[in-house]
Amino acid sequence: MDTTELLAHPVRLRIVHALRGDREMTTTELCARLPDTSKATVYRHVDLLQHGGVLEVASEQRVRGAVERRYRLRQENASISAAAAAALTPDDHRRAFAIAMTALAAEFGAYLDRPGADPAGDLVGYRQHAIWLSPAELTDLIGELRAAILPRLGHTPAPDRTQHLLSPILFPIGDSRSSSR
């Protein structure tokens, strides 16, 4: 299974999200992170991601007679290349978008179900803005967003840090021919 197929599942995508930022987790910890997903499902998808090269075993230890594995993300294998994305058909993009939105909705639901969830206090946002941009302005905006996000992708867990899921979505909603009206 190639990376595109591996990441094209909401549970596997959520596992990848959980392990971003140099995190290491056991399947038990991943199950706690995905409380709406059965333990068997989490184990099956961790196994697929490991065999597909997206996850690797960071360490092993014996716990009550069983081997407990800590997994980490292989960053270089955890994203879809620009060439692979360009090769997707419109239907492939529809499916990928639906999977990403399903994973996002599940993550948000799991957040809201946690005791003490406080969307206002946690500065949760899900705003949408319709903006008019020329091709040059769009290129500038993408560069500015990358410049703001990239330095923070390398942050590792720390006592004063909470992991957040940031999902920028950008696509044209109108025909460019109508922009002069």
Automatic annotation (TrEMBL):
Coiled-coil parts of chain: none
Transmembrane residue ranges: none
HTH arsR-type domain ranges (all copies): 2-85
InterPro entries, per the entry: ArsR-like_HTH, HTH_ArsR_DNA-bd_dom, WH-like_DNA-bd_sf, WH_DNA-bd_sf
Database matches in Pfam families: HTH_20 (PF12840)
Highest taxon, organism lineage: Bacteria
Protein name per UniProt: Transcriptional regulator
Organism: Actinoplanes palleronii
Lineage: Bacteria, Bacillati, Actinomycetota, Actinomycetes, Micromonosporales
